[in-house]
Amino acid sequence: MQKPEPIDEQIILDNTKYIESDTDLKGIITGCNDYFAEISKYSREELIGQPHNIVRHPDMPKIAFKILWDRLKKEQNINLAIKNLAKDGRYYWVFTHFDFKRDINTKKVVGYTAYRKTISNKVTDVLLPIYKKLTEIEKTEGMEGSLKYLNNFLDEHDLTIDTLLDDFYKLY
Asked: So what CATH class is 19-171?
């Protein structure tokens, strides 16, 4: 499925609703709620079976998703602010939290449930320049370069990735 061309128009989310989706361990969508389909402008049938990055906006740095997947594989949760791309080219910002889906018998993780809610402009105003810089670096230096920049940024501001994300979570 081809991604739409992004347009600079934001979809405003209902702060009383959660966007929910289930994925397998590889990020393939196995289920979603009606609100996810409504906001993403894809039907449930179009979403299920697709990689979750079907809604990834090109403004999102790849390093953010590497950090996300590294954490999930270690069974560590992460709260992440993400800019998503709807089928019609518009975008929407969400703050994402994950639950681990486990096999009833073995207790091994078999997938993830993601819950997303809208975030405030205070968060996106701070994040946009950081994400933009990371995305620019990735074009020339790859994820290694963006990770180096991110680590330097965190060191300069006496932060860890967790304290940075926790600070954003408090703003949302």
From this structure: alpha beta
